[in-house]
Amino acid sequence: MKKKKYTSLVLGIFSLLIAPLIFPSLCPAVENEECMECHADDTLARTKSEGMKENLFVNQENFENSVHHANDITCVDCHSDIEKLDWDNEIPHSERLAAVFCDKCHEEEAEAYVDSVHKKAGGKGITIPCYACHGYHYVTHLEAESVLERENGFCLKCHNPNKFHEWLPQMETHFAYVECTVCHAPEVPRYINLRFFDLAKQKFLDGNELLTAMGTDYDGFMPLVDTDSSGIIDIKEFENFTYMLLAKDLRGTFHAELVVAIEPVVHHVNRGAANRECEMCHIPTSLFFENVRFALNKEDGTTEHHQVDRKVLETYYLKHFYALGGTRIRLLDQIGLAMIAAGAGVVLAHLFMRILTIPTRKKKMDHKI
Amino acid sequence: MDNKKLIYIHPLPVRIWHWINAVGMVMLVVTGLQIRFADIVSLFTLEEAITLHNYIGFVVIGNYGLWVAFYFGTGKIKIYFPTPKTFLPNTIKQMKYYGVDIFKGDPNPHHMTPDNKFNSLQQQAYVGLMFIFMPLQMITGLLLWRVNDFEKYINMLGGIKIVDTIHVLLFFFFSIFIVVHSYLATLGHTPLAHFKAMFTGFEESH
Ligand code: HEM
Asked: What is the predicted ipTM?
């Protein structure tokens, strides 16, 4: 009995100690509002020793739209060396704060990042920090972003890819439809992302817009489209889906592009690691087209995905997407085979008749002479 | 053998055009096959096949320009167009010849002269080929060559898959055309007569 009491006491003290770590917002930590009293002022800046001005302004609205704010991460969760503000000083905290470590919350990504040309860049201890790519105060969910948004937001900030890909046929088209990391982070899973482009509005419809126009909602979408409840939208169901949209007067096209799944291995970018074998993609059995998903993008930057049969890529419902050879329309090959068989048949039959009738013609020639 | 005489039927520019075109088309078919069927065919890597296909495509397009320049420049283009009055009866006669009479050893109802080179079946086939199929194949090929730059025109035609469909169907057509065309070329007075003529320019007339 005595022993049990003792254990619960230890547990009690232990949980008291650990509570601030698990529920930081429960302890008397510094509120964001306190920081923003100064840092919401867009004129707050300091002059660095080199004479350059450094802005110390944090845009409150953008910060509140960030994924970190949405997950209750506060200023001091990142700037964790500020334990309290000392209002007696003009600057209520240390002038030189410690660098923020993203790693402490994003362990998996930090681990994956070790095996990356960017982590190793420079060699002399200089590494590219996480926020050189991601930014820090205004990080949003990445899932709903298109290939171009992803590329502009990351790789194109530092690289001019035109330099390295002269060998790549249809270079610009690849960049517009294939995210850099699909080739450069070979281990990351990828999928074909399908979105609906409204021709009347000249824009992509997000989940809400599309569902409202269809007269349904997130829960109603699959039961409406996936009529056999298989969890996959097959060709027939996709066809009906296009008719459904037409019936609601939604005129548009499906836009397809090849993107990576947002997973830590996406950071495994290395020199010379990209695949240069076109045949990896441009054959009908390519794994790159295995996974096809229709995207209903949400406002917070996340996406609800619905699995689509890859055979849909090989149809005319996607008139604007063709990965040479890889998503070719099989019916055309059958037509072609029939044409060749017919042509060759006529030739062979004619040749056969010509050989068969040699004696007839020989007789005639002899007769003439 | 006494009534045999040589007539100059294929002027030099035509012979040059023809053989460049023939070699070019065969190579386009072979590389095209590699491009579309990379899973089945492995004569080249896909990267090589695409590069070759693009270069040869431009040679064939330039060569088509030679054909246009010669035939329109000299006004000889009229040999491609039938005379309306005799067109239908000639077509029927010619079909009967290829289908029946040729086996009996009857003479060809069409008499080749420099100004009336093609029989009416040839006229139909070659007009379709040179004025519709070749231009369509060249235009769709050109659009596929720079998908990004020509996006506007591709979308006007209904999208990349439509443009590609035209290019592919014509590819199958040209593949079989080359076979049939070569076979028909053996139907001269000797199997090699027409081939020789396309090199020397002279055809024997009987
Ligand atoms: C006239 C004979 C031609 C034949 C038989 C032919 C055949 C083919 C075939 C079978 C394909 C593969 C298409 C697919 O898988 O969907 C292809 C692609 C292509 N063809 Fe042709 N073609 C011809 C002429 C041309 C010409 C004149 C050009 C102009 C440069 C051209 C440019 C292309 C291009 C750029 C591609 C796509 C390759 C890529 O994406 O880089 N073709 N062709």
From this structure: 0.91
Cα–Cα distance, B134 to B140 (Å, whole number): 10
Using DSSP bridges, classify how beta strands A252-260 and A190-198 pair: parallel, antiparallel or unpaired: antiparallel
Given a cut of 70, is residue B25 above it in pLDDT? Answer: yes
CA of B160 relative to ligand 1 center, distance in Å: 13
A359: nearest CA in chain B?
Answer: B104
Rounded CA separation B205/A356 (Å): 26
Taking alpha carbons only, the member of A235, A230, A239, A212 closest to residue A311 is A235
Q: Where are the alpha helices (DSSP H) in chain A?
A: 2-22, 32-39, 60-64, 67-70, 75-78, 107-114, 117-120, 130-134, 147-153, 171-177, 180-184, 207-214, 218-225, 235-247, 330-356, 358-368
- Contact flag A322-B161 (C-beta cutoff 8 Å): yes
State both tokens at B125.
């086939």
Considering only the beta carbons, identify the residue of B38, B102, B173 that sits closest to A339.
B173
Residue whose CA lies nearest to ligand 1 atom number 13? B36
CA angle B31, B36, A339 (to 5 degrees): 95
Choose, out of B40, B176, B182, the residue to mutate when testing the contact with A (most A CBs < 10 Å): B176
Q: Per residue in A52-109, pLDDT tens?
A: 888 899 999 999 999 999 999 999 999 999 888 888 888 899 988 999 999 999 999 9
Q: Taking a contact as any Cβ pair under 8 Å apart, which residues of chain A between 143 and 172 contact chain B?
A: 167, 169-170, 172
b/e sequence B57-71, b meaning 16+ C-beta within 10 Å: beebbebbeebeebb
Q: From A167, which residue of chain B is nearest by alpha-carbon distance?
A: B47
The contacts of residue A186 (CB under 8 Å, 6+ apart) are A268, A273, A274, A275
Q: Which residues share a beta bridge with B6?
A: B204
As a whole number, the mean pLDDT across chain B is: 93
- The predicted-structure confidence for A349-359, as pLDDT tens digits, reads as follows 999 999 999 99
Nearest to A234 by CA among A319, A282, A286, A306: A306
- Give the Cα separation of A314 and A331 in Å (integer): 9
- Ligand 1 centroid from CA A358, angstroms: 41
Q: For residues A189 and A181, give the distance between their C-alpha atoms in angstroms, rounded to a whole number.
A: 10
Residues A299 and A208 sit within 8 Å (Cβ to Cβ): yes
Tell me which residues have their CB closer than 6 angstroms to ligand 1: A 169-170, 324-325, 328; B 25, 28-29, 32, 35-36, 50, 53-54, 57-58, 60-61, 137-138, 141-142, 144-145, 164, 167-168, 171, 174
Contacts B45 to A, Cβ<8 Å: 277-279
Of A135, A141, A157, which is closest to residue A59 (Cα–Cα)? Answer: A135
Query: pLDDT per residue over A8-58, tens digit each?
Result: 545 555 554 454 455 544 555 788 999 999 999 988 888 877 778 888 999
The pLDDT score that the predictor gives to residue A4 is 46
Q: Give me the domains of chain B, ranges plus CATH numbers.
A: 5-205 (1.20.950.20)
Is the CB of B181 inside 8 Å of chain A's CB atoms? no
